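Most newcomers find our protein records easier to grasp once they have seen one. Read left to right, the backbone structure tokens trace the chain's path through space. Nothing more is needed to start thinking about how sequence determines fold. An example says more than a description, so a record of this kind follows:
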Amino acid sequence: MKFLVDAQLPRRLARWLQASGHDAIHTRDLPAGNRTVDEVINQMSTQDHRAVITKDGDFVDTFLLRRAPYKLLLVATGNIGNKALDRLFRDNLENIVNAFETYDFVEIDGTSLICHL
């Protein structure tokens, strides 16, 4: 699966996704880096069929209003340490990928995966 990891999340998440066999990039790797605006991220996501992984609620609004980005994973954990974030993705990656086979908007918090129609 293809992912685009937004600026509020660590670059190591994109590297871990790559090591797990996925095509993942972090906004830091884009020409404008972490200053890449949401509209460019949405365009790239739609063009390349990438799921955006973010903590930014603005993407939820854009998704609900315009169906952009292509797919959206909202990390709704609040402040979380990198080790806990790593564990969250390690424990749930297969379920996330499976959820994206049916749903375009998925939310993960500390205890559950929520799939939105």
User: Anything to note?
Assistant: The helical segments are 11-19, 38-48, 58-66, 82-100.
